[in-house]
Amino acid sequence: MKLSNLDELIKFRRDLHRHPELSRNEKNTHKKIYDFLSRFNPDKIITNIGGYGLAAVYNGRIPGPTLAFRADIDALPIQEKNRFVHASEVENVGHMCGHDGHTAILAGLGAVLQENRPERGRVVLIFQPAEETLDGARKYIKDPKFEEIQPDYVFGLHNWRSDKKNQVVLKTGQMSPAVTTMLVDLKGTPAHASRPESGICPYNSAVKIVARAYELQNNSDVHSDHFSMATLVHFVLGKNPGYGTAPGDAHIAITLRAYKDSVLKKLTDQIEVYIARISKEETLTNWAITYTDETIACTNNEECCRIIEKAAKENNLEVHYMETPMRGGEDVGYIINSSSRGGAYFHLGSGPDQPDLHEPDFDFPDKLIEPGIRMYNAIVNQILNSTAIK
Question: CATH for 178-295, among 3.40.50.720, 3.30.70.360, 3.40.50.300, 3.40.50.150?
């Protein structure tokens, strides 16, 4: 595999970094990807999938499986602290998770496929919006345009701070947890601060709900399939600061996660039952529960993990198998689950000295672009070319 346009890919990546766009607002990013990919002559580019998503199709010479690779394209609501030339020009928005790099890697695979079409089947490059809000993949696969893709295999990668540079980090089975954030609104009755007994303050209810969520979590053994975790991320009592007023409302957000979808469902059900009970006991006038930032667990197919491991060894990259799933949520599981034969998601390590994801001084390491492309190309060769698995 010749990679003659690495400098162009780095320039493309840095341009995306300089002009980040938040989830569901990736209009200009969509156009930049379309224009850049068009230079590499895909057989078809499908646009506006599930919002501002795209898919570039490279057909092989004879029929065969559809092999898809996925990259996320959105940025985060974080103010970048870096001061280099390609730092974000958008206030309070930045590519602090490396999606600009993931996009450049996938575009780089398109450059390779331009010169080396697969022998059989086809390769589809999936550019997915709105990963950070955990609803992009779900909307992508529900879009009628996705019917044109219907992958047999799906692979994806994410940059990751690791023990060693260019280390491929992998896990069979559960790779990332199911996640949801429970939003709880409690209604009581406000009262004058000198006569709080004349109103109903939801403070006690809110505190008890948070305490119960922490009691119900099962985070003592991170190796257990029954692992679950609750984290309070928001707690507001009263709508506005007001002198002389005992508040009559409270608002809580609790992020819940578990390795298995069924475990997360059980945890949310238990908390919902408790909220109803305590709200009645505390004589609240009303309560409401909604959910946001929801995603299923990502489960890696064992055969696909072996394919990734072989690709890493072909490229002289060390493979490290994780003992436990990652804690952070990832919506790639929806796309993997859409495949007929399975898929896998892995990390490409940047080494121990890289700032962590979502930190304001983070910048995707350009040195990961080439090994990322080589990993993807090796997977193409295994599945669709002469050494392919039958």
Answer: 3.30.70.360
